[in-house]
Design goal:
alpha/beta, five-stranded mixed sheet, two-stranded parallel sheet
């Protein structure tokens, strides 16, 4: 049933790239943010724990909380999603309004409380379609809607990632990326050396979209913290003036030469269609 629902979500996005109609009683916030985190089997248990604890710590960070409260309305809406193959997505923490340090701490505690094993495959397209659908009836409205997606490999399941990205961007959603380039997982045969460029060319999109790669796990918290501050404050990449051990790629590098089906081809080479 879940693969069918994800497929329907992708088709709905492709056929209806319009701004969704918001209910009159939707709560106005400065930003609506989906944190979409990779839970595929290529992630080792310790890596999954680093991700969860890293996001929880970042959401408690004074700079991140300050960015949440810095907007015109002083509040944002966030949800936390884990994903893997096509149709394998789960909302770990449902949409919540963050308008204080206590709200941010409560959200972070819910991330830390969940423990879930990994799923097969990597479907960035499924994750983007699922995440985009969550804005439809979340009870909030804002001028900025963002999907913050992290992962350790290219799309190898479901529709092409560019289709889901373009459909999301067509609905006014910005997609930012956090490629994990640590290459220590069980399925590193399906990873690629230039995952940061893949994310820049094939995954992210929308006004001010950007990529912050993670090359070593000890960089993860710093990268997530910087990314959240940029997204929640509305600052353009490169204007945050924050030191970071990672480099940042501003917006897409449209080259027309990058193969956005590289993940599907690696999977087919290993297992066939």
């Amino acid at each position: 049933m879940r693969p069918l629902m994800a497929f329907v979500a992708v088709i709905a996005l492709l056929m209806g790239a319009r701004e969704p109609v918001r209910a009159a009683d939707s709560i106005p916030v400065d930003v609506e943010l989906v944190l979409a985190v990779d839970l595929s089997l290529s992630m080792m248990p310790e890596e999954l724990e680093i991700q969860r604890s890293g996001y929880a710590a970042a959401l408690n960070d004074p700079a991140v909380v300050g960015a949440m409260l810095s907007g015109l309305r002083g509040r944002v809406a966030i949800t936390f999603v884990e994903w893997a193959g096509f149709g394998d997505q789960a909302v770990v923490v449902p949409w919540q309004e963050i308008a204080s340090l206590a709200d941010a701490q409560r959200f972070a505690e819910q991330i830390s409380a969940r423990r879930r094993g990994g799923w097969r495959r990597t479907s960035l397209s499924g994750a983007l379609a699922f995440s985009a659908s969550l804005f439809e009836t979340n009870g909030f409205k804002s001028p900025r809607r963002i999907i913050d997606i992290s992962g350790d490999g290219p799309n190898n399941d479901g529709p092409a990632v560019t289709l889901a990205r373009d459909a999301a961007v067509g609905r006014g959603i910005t997609v930012n990326g956090l490629p994990l380039m640590t290459r220590i997982g069980l399925m590193s045969v399906f990873e690629i050396d230039d995952l940061d460029r893949y994310y820049s060319e094939c995954v992210i999109g929308g006004p001010g979209s950007f990529v912050i790669p993670v090359f070593r796990w000890n960089q993860f918290l710093s990268a997530v913290r910087r990314k959240l501050v940029l997204e929640l404050s509305g600052k353009m990449p490169g204007h945050d003036q924050q030191p970071s051990p990672t480099h940042l790629i501003n917006a897409r590098l449209v080259s027309n030469h990058y193969d956005c089906l590289i993940g599907e081809k690696l999977w087919e080479k290993q297992f066939g269609r």
